[in-house]
Design a protein that fits this description.
TIM Barrel; eight-stranded parallel beta barrel; binds NADP nicotinamide-adenine-dinucleotide phosphate
């Protein structure tokens, strides 16, 4: 098994931890509404292609928590015996259980949620524990203190923040540094349709030596050939529980995506492949966190690494399409 020979592994910021250039997220397609044998096959396909990092959160499903439960079953079956070859992350920050302690950034919520996540996955520890979002109503010292405690209690090896802007990230980094726990990584949304991280967050992460992993790099499937001929019934936009809605797939967007698809074809790639490597290059990322509904999509996304370089003309052509020109 040459599992590790074709994947690219990048150091996560200035840490000693390497992440695969492509990681797999379990936000969609790993819940109670999905087929377990397909999840097993996706996990096996990913791992066999060198994807060592699987990303979860307390609320992934639906139902919330079920992605962690299903991943726990995968760890005991398909991935059995490989725990030390895997980087498993989870998060807390969005609404998870009723009442005042199941949402936000309090110490009470984060540490109780981490215990629940470990139980659902059947783990003693996760590799990365994230604050899923900045909570303006909780002192950042409290939220970061909870992450630091998770590490000191041996329940997480590293900590991260997600959806934090440049200034919030810098403050989180400084607070954690004083506590003796480095900030490993930030997980922002980043893709061709959402480039908010480029002006401030990317240079800040580089300056601080913090790693980065982009979520929704394919804009939930929009930056693929999935919607070029309408909305397939098995697609995320067609599913009632999917986060992407049919109304998001506008004719203007399809026109733009068709032009991007032509540029990808000219490179000998699928649009998904081009979007993945564009993400790595323009976002200066440690890893690109893709989602998938079937094993073929994972194979396609990993194949992207075979052609990582862009000419200046290609980058300019992509920018022109994205600017609506
Ligand atoms: N931190 C946060 O707040 C946050 C928020 C969102 C996501 N995330 C993380 O990021 C991960 C990825 O997000 P995402 O699922 O939105 O990512 P994405 O990669 O942008 O979208 C995944 C979807 O794109 C389609 N797809 C993937 N590969 C394809 C291919 N090669 N060809 C055609 N279609 C393809 C599939 O759609 P179909 O299902 O229609 O086939 C798949 O479900 C999540 O699982 C989660 O771990 C984090």
């Amino acid at each position: 098994m040459n599992r590790y020979s074709n994947m690219v592994y990048n150091y996560c910021g200035r840490s000693g931890l390497k992440l695969p250039a492509i990681s797999l997220g379990l936000w969609h397609n790993f819940g109670t509404v999905d087929v377990f044998s397909n999840m097993q096959e996706m996990a096996r396909t990913a791992f066999d292609l060198g994807i060592t990092h699987f990303d979860l959160a307390n609320n992934y499903g639906p139902t919330p928590g079920s992605a962690e439960e299903n991943f726990g079953k995968i760890l005991r079956s398909t991935l059995h015996g490989h725990r030390d070859e895997l980087i498993i992350s989870t998060k807390a920050g969005y609404g998870m259980w009723p009442g005042p302690y199941g949402d936000g950034g309090s110490r009470k919520y984060l540490l109780a949620s981490l215990d629940q996540s470990l139980k659902r996955m059947g783990l003693d520890y996760v590799d990365i524990f994230y604050s899923h979002r900045f909570d303006p109503n909780t002192p950042l010292e409290e939220t970061m203190g909870a992450l630091d405690s998770a590490v000191k209690q041996g329940k997480a090896l590293y900590v991260g923040v997600s959806n934090y802007n440049a200034e919030q990230t810098r403050r989180a980094y400084e607070i954690l540094k004083k506590m003796g726990t480095p900030l490993l990584i930030n997980q922002p949304c980043y893709n061709m349709l959402n480039r908010w991280i480029e002006p401030e967050l990317v240079p800040t992460l580089e300056e601080l030596g913090v790693g980065s992993i982009s979520f929704s790099p394919l804009a939930q499937g929009q930056l693929t050939d999935r919607y070029l001929k309408g909305i397939p019934s098995d697609s995320r936009a067609a599913k009632p529980w999917g986060f992407l809605k049919e109304k998001d797939i506008t004719p203007e967007k399809i026109e733009m995506i068709s032009k991007l698809n032509d540029i990808a074809k000219g490179r000998g790639q699928t649009l998904a492949e081009m979007a993945v490597v564009w993400n790595l290059k323009r976002g200066h990322l440690t890893s690109v966190l893709v989602g998938a509904s079937r094993p073929e999509q994972i194979r396609d996304n990993v194949a992207a690494l075979e052609k990582r370089e862009f000419s200046d003309d290609e980058l300019a052509a992509i920018d022109k399409v994205l600017a609506g020109k």
